[in-house]
Specification:
There is one protein chain. The protein is an all-alpha fold. It has one domain. Helices cover 73% and strands 0% of the residues. It has 12 helices and no strands. Helix 1 crosses helix 6 and helix 4 packs parallel to helix 7. It comes from Streptomyces zagrosensis. Keywords: Membrane, Transmembrane, Transmembrane helix. This is ABC-type transport system involved in multi-copper enzyme maturation permease subunit.
């Protein structure tokens, strides 16, 4: 089979199943909704001296990324039910081709929804911030909106790699959710631990959402760290798929 035909089949698998599509919708609705709520209830009296209006408009991303994780995991693990993966491998014996096209579809959809989410969160959030709001011309604003899309696309692919490695949705999400949502916010409060946790996928990737770099980890450097995590886990998933029986 050609790359085009495999991409079409992988796209068909996604858009004909409700759960992955609902997850994608939740990425947009959760991120934009919680960000809007945070910006609408923001009080200038509570603002710190280093208040970053650009980053504040992505307040809901930490919640929306959970849906992106679910999307990547569900697309992969759905094929481990009822022997569906065996059917896919019978149609596409080249496992690398099948896996690569699956990741391309997951990443492409994550990026597309992420870009819509990024611009909707930023524009809506800045409008609700009133006098403290800024426009896309502000330093780092356009980069942050685009970076939101890149971040969510990479996170979805990272989740797919872990799901391929672990095979089950419970195991994959049981690992991903604590690592990507709890470790850095909880353990990164102290400077000694922060020097390590800032290189975790979520903390590093979200550097691109800041108008100014945080503590030496620049926006593109942080995104590159996330990309390296994603590539490493995608390769680990591919290696597991090549070795194991369907």
């Amino acid at each position: 089979m050609t790359v085009t035909s495999v991409l079409r089949s992988e796209w068909a698998k996604v858009h004909t199943v409700h759960a992955p599509l609902i997850s994608l919708a939740c990425v947009l609705l959760t991120t934009v909704g919680i960000s809007a709520l945070a910006c609408a209830t923001y009080s200038p009296d509570d603002a710190a001296d280093d208040f970053d209006p650009v980053f504040y408009s992505f307040f809901g991303l930490s919640f929306g990324q959970l849906a992106a994780l679910c999307f990547g995991v569900l697309v992969v693990t759905g094929e481990y039910k009822g022997g569906a993966l065996s059917i896919s491998l019978a149609a596409v014996p080249r496992r690398g081709l099948l896996y690569g096209c699956k990741l391309a579809v997951i990443g492409g959809l994550g990026l597309t929804v992420g870009l819509v989410t990024g611009f909707a969160s930023f524009l809506g959030g800045q409008a609700l911030l009133g006098d403290r709001g800024v426009g896309l011309g502000e330093e780092g604003a356009l980069r942050a909106a685009l970076g939101c899309g890149l971040y969510l696309g990479l996170i979805a692919v990272l989740a797919a790699g872990v799901a391929t490695l672990l095979r089950g949705p419970v195991a994959a999400l049981g690992l991903l959710i604590p690592v990507l949502t709890f470790v850095q916010p909880v353990l990164g409060a102290t400077s000694a631990v922060y020097d390590v946790t800032r290189f975790l996928p979520d903390a590093a990737g979200q550097s691109i959402l800041h108008a100014t770099p945080e503590q030496g980890l620049g926006p593109w450097t942080g995104l590159a760290v996330l990309a390296l995590w994603t590539a490493a886990l995608a390769v680990a998933g591919w290696s597991a798929l090549e070795r194991r029986d369907a």
